[in-house]
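Explain this one:

_____
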Amino acid sequence: MEPVQEQRPLPSEVGAVLDARTWAGLHHLESLTGPGAIADLVEAFLADAPQRFRRMENAILAGELAAAGRDAHDLKANAATLGALRLAGVMAEIEAAARGEGDLDLLVAVDRARTLLEEAQEALSRRMA
């Protein structure tokens, strides 16, 4: 895997902002559970992700890598659920680095993840409009 510092797209960053197959699955889920299931998931993500992201970043700056890893894990899972696979991929790398795996520059990775989070938020907002 190429280091994030090189600013080259990671394998997890290739493709659209929101994965079409994931959204097909979400639509199927909503057909079973009733209207509003997708909107509820998106609303929860849009409300929670910025706060969780700030908490993760602050934990990294404070050297509290276990806490940062937990938030990265949650952001990864929530992003993947909504098809923001590029964001989920970078969050997985941050989670692994917080566990001491690899030599990823966490602050550089957080900056990259912030951009992907903003892209995901915009795409989700457009999708729900």
Q: What stands out?
A: Residues 1-14 have pLDDT under 50 and may be disordered. The helical segments are 20-33, 37-61, 65-81, 85-98, 106-128. The CA atoms of residues 17 and 54 lie 21 Å apart.
